[in-house]
């Protein structure tokens, strides 16, 4: 029997597990997330698959993991007690931030509290200029005193972020040595190791978050590794990064800032691979689970990456180009927009009598009222049950029994009666509001970035994605929806397509046309050597390494940069002109205009990605999933499609039945998700088992 690669994605409600053999055979398991101990759901799910299919840990050759441990620690303020040492005068940089706010004219908005309390933020009198020259020498005795004070306060980790250390890290490294000598067991991280780039707040914030997460993530990964060992799994454990690449558990333990958006990234990577297989280059991915909904853009066959992102601020109601709501991380990340709208999102009425959805969620425990696990507040899932979209008796292929009457009763009591509405009308209103909330996310990655969503196909996944996709696509005038096989486990599938990936950067900050081309060649050559050394540690030979270049550029005088691909090989003036032109084209596409040819373009950061390529295809050409067949034939049921259409007797089909094209209304019921095909839509199955919906 061939070995299995395993993809594991932990969501707020469910933990999804996919086994994929070298032969293409696929096994799946969906289990409720264990919120108090995320590793427990993984262990239980693996044990269930082992027992059901006669496997053991010895059959596993690789474990790939997307996790919300890091993001949850930030959102719940459950990170480590962290101490910060900064340059004199920069003690309050975490509070001053960059003076950007998420909502204009909102006088009541409050910035999130700093992750390091003020009494744990100390300074030292030192100064290095932007050229890396020491202007004020670090006083080692003062640095020792600062370290000793933090240790006396009982900090669990110390981080150091000094002004302009990206140009010369000597002072940061000196303080790191002091910490190691005085407290060898206390983790310490310096900004030069985390983010050797210009911009003081961004570098400090990223370093603080990395330190804040370090003990939490390390402990989790050690616990998980021990549990996998007990299950006789000796294979490598790799973590999905926010940027869509994999890293070893050891690397993730040192730089946990890179796995904050680990979970959502897997689905986008899967979407890119999925589009490549079927020849679809322009895609909007839509991932809706039990807690949140996330969307991203795949353009010309490549997913888009952001230069920075924020955690804990939610989606912005204005332009996504203006941020400032959450905790900032300046690390490469797949460009995602997220809203607090999932199956578990709570439906409520505000003080003004308006119907609202989320952002609070019933989560995995107690979950929606229909789960009959103690939930008392109506959720989006309860509304879907009342509308007839979801099976009224069970979910997850019969593994999760539900009580439809409890959904109806709670919606009647908490929503319909107070608003003076019929319960179906109230449930449909909640459904439409959820759609409206999630459309904001799609616009954030499309129209607010200069892209027209009508030029893209939608690929929905997650447990609830296919249920809401048609409603969203219709509002956005998108014409085609493609629902992949096993959509509820798609993020786990995405993990199986990812490559090992390391990102490196250096600040340059010069007008590019005034530079000696050799200087640019040398910068990228240095980054390539760093990437090569790391990939060698990971076990990759030269033939299995690939390097791609990028650059952050802006017009001189601008604050924010755009990221564009940079040419390979030795630089000359022609390649400098090529890089300038690429920036101008991206500026015009993003902002609607570009400056004249004489406007100087400044390169801020040079970047390089080192890829570790497998010695064989990560995923077989033909994937064979074991379809779970329901014991009873699927009976038609009444479904509500709004006051204009009312209740319609709606066929309930399996995916296989769509080999013959059908016209809506139709409900496609599967083990891991339910797909809604509304009246007027047409659906069929393609050669790859995808559901193609045309509106």
What does this 3D model show about the protein?
The longest helix is centred in the N-terminal third of the chain and has 31 residues, at 200-230. The chain is an alpha+beta fold and 695 residues long. Among the domains are: 4-74 and 218-259, Nucleotidyltransferase, domain 5 (2-Layer Sandwich), CATH 3.30.420.40; 79-212, 3-Layer(aba) Sandwich (Rossmann fold); 500-612, Dna Ligase, domain 1. It is 31% helix and 26% strand. A hairpin with a 4-residue loop joins β36 and β37. The protein has 16 helices and 39 strands.
Q: State the secondary-structure class.
A: alpha+beta
Please tally the β strands and state the result.
39
Number of helical regions: 16
Q: In CATH terms, what is the architecture of the domain at 79-212?
A: 3-Layer(aba) Sandwich
| Rounded mean pLDDT score | 89
User: CATH top level of the domain at 79-212?
Assistant: Alpha Beta
Proportion in β-strands: 25-35%
Globally, the shape reads: globular
Amino- and carboxy-terminal Cα gap: 44 Å
Radius of gyration: 26 Å
Give the proportion of residues in helices: 25-40%
Report the biggest beta sheet as strand number plus sense, adding barrel if it closes.
Answer: 7 strands, mixed
Show the helix and strand layout.
Elements: E1 4-10, E2 14-21, E3 25-32, H1 38-53, E4 60-66, H2 69-75, E5 82-87, H3 93-96, E6 121-124, E7 127-128, E8 134-136, H4 140-152, E9 157-161, H5 170-182, E10 188-190, H6 191-194, H7 200-230, E11 237-240, E12 246-248, H8 249-254, H9 262-278, E13 283-288, E14 293-299, E15 302-303, E16 305-306, E17 309-311, E18 327-329, E19 333-334, E20 336-339, E21 345-349, E22 355-361, H10 380-386, E23 394-395, E24 400-401, H11 404-419, H12 423-445, E25 457-461, H13 465-475, E26 480-483, H14 490-497, E27 500-511, H15 517-537, E28 545-555, E29 562-565, H16 573-591, E30 601-612, E31 624-625, E32 637-640, E33 647-650, E34 652-653, E35 662-663, E36 666-669, E37 674-677, E38 682-685, E39 691-694
Parallel strand pairs: 1-4, 3-31, 4-11, 5-6, 5-9, 9-10, 13-25, 34-36
Antiparallel strand pairs: 1-2, 2-3, 7-8, 11-12, 13-14, 14-15, 14-20, 16-19, 17-18, 21-22, 23-24, 26-39, 27-30, 28-29, 28-30, 32-33, 35-38, 36-37, 38-39
Helix pairs in contact: 1-7, 2-7, 4-5, 9-14, 10-11, 10-12, 11-12, 12-13
């Amino acid at each position: 029997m061939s070995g299995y690669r395993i993809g594991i994605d932990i969501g707020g409600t469910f933990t999804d597990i996919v086994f994929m053999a070298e032969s293409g055979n696929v096994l799946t398991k969906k289990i409720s997330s264990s919120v108090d101990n995320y590793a427990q759901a993984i262990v239980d799910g693996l044990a269930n698959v082992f027992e059901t299919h006669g496997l053991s840990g010895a059959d596993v050759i690789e474990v790939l993991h997307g996790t919300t441990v890091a993001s949850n620690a930030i959102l719940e303020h459950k990170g480590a007690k962290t101490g910060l040492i900064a340059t004199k005068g920069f003690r309050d940089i975490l509070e001053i931030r960059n003076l950007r706010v998420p909502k204009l004219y909102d006088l009541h908005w409050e910035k999130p509290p700093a992750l390091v309390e003020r009494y744990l933020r100390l300074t030292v009198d030192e100064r290095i200029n932007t050229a890396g020259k020491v202007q004020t020498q670090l006083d080692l005795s003062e640095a020792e005193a600062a370290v000793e004070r933090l240790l006396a306060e009982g900090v669990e980790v110390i981080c150091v972020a000094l002004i302009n250390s990206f140009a010369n890290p000597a002072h940061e490294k000196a303080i790191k040595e002091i910490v190691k000598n005085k407290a060898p067991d206390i983790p310490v991280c310096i900004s030069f190791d985390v983010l050797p780039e210009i911009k003081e707040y961004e570098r400090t914030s990223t370093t603080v978050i990395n330190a804040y997460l370090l003990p939490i993530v390390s402990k989790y990964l050690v616990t998980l590794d021990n549990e996998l060992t007990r299950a006789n799994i000796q294979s490598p454990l790799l973590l999905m990064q926010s940027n869509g690449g994999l890293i070893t558990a050891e690397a993730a333990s040192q730089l946990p800032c890179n796995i904050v958006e680990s979970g959502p990234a897997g689905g986008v990577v899967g979407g890119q691979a999925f589009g490549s297989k079927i020849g679809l280059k322009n895609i909007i991915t839509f991932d809706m689970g039990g807690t949140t909904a996330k969307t991203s853009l795949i353009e010309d066959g490549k997913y888009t990456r952001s230069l920075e992102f924020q955690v804990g601020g939610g989606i912005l109601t204005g332009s996504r180009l203006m941020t400032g709501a959450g905790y900032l991380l300046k690390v490469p990340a797949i460009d995602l927009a997220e809203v607090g709208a999932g199956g578990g999102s709570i439906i409520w009425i505000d003080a003004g009598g308006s119907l609202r959805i989320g952002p609070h969620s019933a989560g995995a425990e107690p979950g929606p009222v229909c789960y009959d696990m103690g939930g008392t507040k109506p959720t989006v899932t309860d509304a879907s049950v009342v509308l007839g979209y979801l099976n009224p008796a069970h979910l997850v292929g019969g593994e999760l029994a539900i009580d439809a009457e409890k959904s109806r009763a709670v919606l009647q009591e908490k929503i319909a009666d107070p608003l003076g509405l019929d319960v179906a009308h109230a449930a449909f209103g909640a459904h439409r509001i959820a759609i409206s909330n999630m459309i904001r996310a799609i616009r954030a990655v499309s129209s607010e970035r200069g892209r027209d969503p009508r030029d893209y196909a939608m690929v929905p996944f997650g447990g609830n994605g296919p249920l809401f996709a048609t409603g969203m696509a219709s509002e956005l005038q998108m014409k085609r929806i493609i629902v992949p096989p096993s959509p509820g486990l798609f993020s786990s599938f995405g993990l199986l397509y990812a490559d090992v990936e390391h990102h490196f950067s250096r600040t340059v900050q010069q007008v590019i046309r005034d530079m000696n081309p050799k200087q640019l060649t040398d910068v990228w050559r240095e980054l390539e050597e760093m990437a090569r050394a790391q990939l060698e540690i990971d076990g990759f030979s030269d033939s299995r390494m690939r390097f791609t270049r990028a650059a952050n550029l802006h017009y001189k005088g601008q604050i924010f940069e755009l990221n564009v691909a940079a040419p390979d090989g030795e630089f000359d003036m022609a390649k400098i002109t090529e890089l300038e032109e690429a920036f101008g084209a991206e500026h015009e596409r993003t902002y609607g205009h570009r400056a004249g040819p004489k406007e100087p373009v400044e390169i801020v950061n040079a970047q390089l990605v080192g890829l570790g390529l497998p010695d064989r295809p990560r995923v077989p050409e033909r994937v064979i999933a074991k379809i779970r067949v329901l014991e009873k034939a699927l009976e038609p049921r009444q479904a509500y499609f709004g006051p204009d259409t009312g209740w319609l007797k709606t066929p309930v089909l399996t995916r296989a039945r769509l080999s013959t094209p059908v016209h809506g209304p139709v409900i496609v019921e599967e083990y891991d998700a339910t797909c809604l095909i509304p009246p007027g839509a047409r659906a069929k199955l393609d050669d790859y088992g995808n559901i193609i919906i045309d509106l």
